[in-house]
Design goal:
Blueprint (H helix, E strand, L loop, with lengths): L2 H4 L2 E2 L5 E5 L2 E5 L4 E5 L5 E5 L2 E5 L5 H22 L2 E8 L4 E5 L2 E5 L6 E4 L4 E6 L2 E6 L2 H13 L10 E4 L16
Antiparallel strand pairs: 1-6, 2-3, 3-4, 5-6, 7-12, 7-13, 8-9, 9-10, 11-12
């Protein structure tokens, strides 16, 4: 039995949930999110909880059970609290500035890189810290990954964009082999 799928999802105050067949809409203070889930999985609202059930113990149904519950839980958390990912810029001359709804990165290339904020995402820049926040967990993570991919941290010097709290393993270089 799926341990994740069996847990009921608590609906906090101020969050409105509408289930229409195999479509769920979660509306809160931050945003409105929608999801079309698999027709084999049943989702129902009982009081202030959402219950996700599956028809059988088939391997595919077990996988969909936990997935659907996790996606709906992320929607409920997203519209009530939101999600945030922080990135750090390391390197001499590497910086980011925000102009309107665009972020301009100077990352050691011959040209600055402009990136527009996706709809539903807010990007804040303070010193060398970039904060990506929004209601959709998947979109927040995808945007943070795109920003990181602009200049992946160098394995020899550690220069580049990394997630806050990410531990980099720095290689020794050529002088390490001579002993």
């Amino acid at each position: 039995m799926s341990r994740i799928g069996r847990k009921p999802i608590a609906i906090p105050a101020g969050v409105d949930v509408k289930i229409d067949g195999h479509h769920i809409t979660v509306k809160g203070a931050k945003s409105t999110l929608e999801l079309d889930f698999h027709p084999d999985i049943s989702v129902k609202q009982e009081g202030a909880e959402i219950i996700v059930e599956r028809p059988s113990d088939d391997k595919n149904h077990r996988a969909l059970h936990g997935l659907t519950r996790a996606l709906i839980n992320n929607m409920v958390i997203g519209v009530s609290e939101g999600f945030t990912k922080n990135l750090e810029i390391n390197g001499v001359g590497y910086r980011a500035t925000k102009q309107g709804n665009k972020v301009i990165f100077n990352l050691g290339y011959s040209h600055p890189i402009e990136m527009a904020e996706p709809e539903g995402i807010t990007i804040d820049v303070k010193d060398n810290v970039i904060s990506v926040s929004g209601a959709d967990k998947q979109l927040v993570g995808e945007t943070a990954a795109k920003i990181r991919s602009l200049r992946v941290p160098d394995v020899y010097k550690g220069k580049g964009i990394k997630y806050a709290g990410e531990h980099l393993i720095i290689k020794e270089g050529k002088t390490g082999a001579k002993k």
